[in-house]
Every structure is written in structure tokens, then in C-alpha cells.
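Hi Prof. W.,

I finally got the Thiamine-phosphate synthase prediction working! I wasn't sure whether to trim anything, so I left the full sequence exactly as given:
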Amino acid sequence: MDKSKLQLYFIAGTTNIGDRNLLDVLQAALKGGITTFQLREKGEGALQGDDLKALAEQCKQLCNKFKVPFIVNDDVDLAVEVGADGVHIGQEDGDIAKVREKIGSEKILGVSTHSIEDAMAASDAGANYVGIGPLFETTSKENAGAPVGTELVRQVANVLPGLPIVGIGGITERKAGRVIREGASGVAMISAIANSEDVEQVTRAIKGSVTLASTGVEM
Ligand code: 3NM
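And this is what came out:
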């Protein structure tokens, strides 16, 4: 896949944005320069069924307008149904190779990993990229486990140089550059973007840090 699409990977669902509208937040983040969006509808009050499908379709349309890939978290059937650009699954979400079979070879498949072994298995089973985390403390994911540290990004990048990596978990604008310099193609974030008051401006600032780090410029 085109690694540059992973540079600033925004993840959100309706439970991450307080009383704001997800489409408004997404539009601001798209204007600010996110390069991928993942719909992750989880937790108390999460939408389901037709409501979730309608939201996914609207997110997809908005992402299409900005030529940004639209990824669905966990729900492979929903991803296929709405024609998402890809799906992202965790270690608990079933057989990676089976998911690849189901979505076909053209769709993006991302897998959450927490060790070198996880990353190798995901790569072998046909993942286009792996998420590695949590790199830092996070409150956005239940049972995220202890931080694995940014060293794991470097280790996986060394062992699997062809596998695009996205760092995740507790990443802020200040920490984003370090994650990129360890060898990640991009950073994935919920709260740093979703909880910000001015989503567009904050996104633009984070994008600036990531772009600078990607080009090897020290901040
Ligand atoms: N997955 P924030 S950490 C969705 O470690 C998710 O696989 C993680 O949110 C993993 O940017 C995480 O607010 C939460 O920390 C990321």
C-alpha cells in the first residue's frame, strides 16, 4: 500500500467526541490534513445496525471527497457492505488470513499488534500495515495493556523492513515525531485530535510535526 496514506491516521467513533457531531469533527480533521480515517464505534452508547451503517456511509462519502482512505474497525461485514477502503482488526477479531480472503486482495487490511511475533504473524497472513501499541499510556481503549514503548516500533521496523507501521496509544503532537523517527510510517490518534477544541488547527499542527519528522528534520 501507499505508506504515505498512513502518516496521520485519525480514529474516532461517536463515543469519542462528547456532544459534537462525528461528521463535523471528521470534516475538520480532513481539512486539517489527516491521511486515513478509521471509524471505531465502541463503548457505551455506540451506534449499531442501520444507524451504524448510515454513519459509515456518510463517513465514507466525506473521506472520498478528500481522497482519504476510509477504514472500518473490527466489523468486516460492515466494511464490505459499505464498500470501505479497508478494515482494521485486533488480535481478538479472528483469523487474519480469513479476513483477507473475505475482503479480497485490493482492500487495505490493518492489524493491531503488541509484539514482534504479532507483527510477523500479521505480515505473513496478508496485513498491509500493522498498528503497534499502546506506545504510551492511553485512556481511549479499555484493556489496552501496559505501554509497549517506542522501541518496539524500531524492532519491528528492523525485522520487517517492508511492513508499514503505525504507532498508536497516547500519541500527542509532541510525541509524534519520536514515533516516526523510530521507523513508523505514521501515527494513529484518537484523543489528541478528537478531544481538541479546534480540530482543524490541531490536526494541521500535528501534521506539520509528522511531515517534518518524516523528512528527517529534527524538531
Ligand atoms: N488501540 P489515543 S491504543 C484504539 O494499543 C487503540 O492497539 C491501541 O487512542 C493499541 O490516541 C488505542 O487517545 C487508543 O491514545 C488510541
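The chain has one domain: 3-214. Does that look reasonable to you?

Thanks,
D.
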